[in-house]
Amino acid sequence: MAGLFLKEVLRNPWSWLLGLGVAALALAFRGRPEGVAVLSLYGLLLLFVPPAVLALAVPLLARREEWAFWTAMPRPAGRLYLAAAGGLALGFALPFLLGGGLAASLLGLSGRNAAWLLLALVLVVLFWVGVAALAGAWVLEPGRALGMGLLLWGFLVLAYDPAVVGLSLLFRDYPLEGFLLAVIFANPLEILRVSLLKGLGAPVLVGPVGYLLDRLLGELGGLPLLLSFGVAFLLFYGLAAGIFARRDR
Is residue 152 within 8 Å of 131, Cβ to Cβ? Predict the structure, then answer.
């Protein structure tokens, strides 16, 4: 099953165009310091990669008629669905790794900074394929599943910083560090952004949420990044498999 879905992604020209889009965006940041270029590229990628991955992945994972056939096979339904999501994740990661490698070459990145860029690309792709898998398993209707994924993208990428800042200002007279820590961990993409800042040594601002994260977790190194994405992957992929195994197809 993983191989079938992997092939579906790799033979879709849009998958490769998305990967090459990373390299095309990198051209806008040539000549800038490496850290600034990678962080700027990451910010742009969060605007176009999640909607594009969702638009391509959700229809493949939410086809009720096709799953009615496959789940008649002897293997457990949840395992089949998880294998399909894994195949999609690998299928999308490969074009983005190619595009990220080309982008690193165009920007003249050092090996360490190129590794940070490729790591960020892989984590973002796996994260949003997981979102697509969970949404698809939840409703098995491409339109509704895509809407759910885009709603989460809008919150995590567009509305998250203003929401956290608003809460901080509204309750500034209360001890909120524990609450803010939980809110920050709810968005691994923000932790990745701050980890990129620290790993690249880029002299740029990352916003008020990044400041809070650096103040609260600055001594823990890469542990918050690993923990936040590990929990997200377990939640998205594990819950998707569990829901799919129990739903009426």
Answer: yes
d(C-alpha 74, C-alpha 14), whole Å: 33
pLDDT in tens, 70-112: 555 556 777 888 888 999 999 999 999 999 999 999 998 888 8
> Could you read off the pLDDT of 37-62 as tens digits, one per residue?
888 888 888 988 999 999 999 988 87
Cα(214)–Cα(191) distance, rounded to whole angstroms?
A: 9
Q: Note the pLDDT of residue 92.
A: 93
Q: Angle at the Cα of 166 (from 165 to 168), degrees rounded to 5? A: 65
Q: How far apart are CA 130 and CA 88, in angstroms?
A: 10
| Calpha distance 222→209 (Å, rounded) | 17
Q: How far apart are CA 78 and CA 85, in angstroms?
A: 11
- Whether 146 and 136 have beta carbons less than 8 Å apart is answered as no
For 140-192, the pLDDT digits (tens) are: 888 899 999 999 999 888 887 777 777 767 766 666 666 667 777 778 888 88
3-state secondary structure the chain: CHHHHHHHHHCCHHHHHHHHHHHHHHHHHCCCCHHHHHHHHHHHHHHHHHHHHHHHHHHHHCCHHHHHHHCCCCCCHHHHHHHHHHHHHHHHHHHHHHHHHHHHHHHCCCHHHHHHHHHHHHHHHHHHHHHHHHHHHHHCCHHHHHHHHHHHHHHHHHHHHHHHHHHHHHCCCCCCHHHHHHHHHCCHHHHHHHHHHHHHCCCCCCHHHHHHHHHHHCCCCCHHHHHHHHHHHHHHHHHHHHHHHHCCC
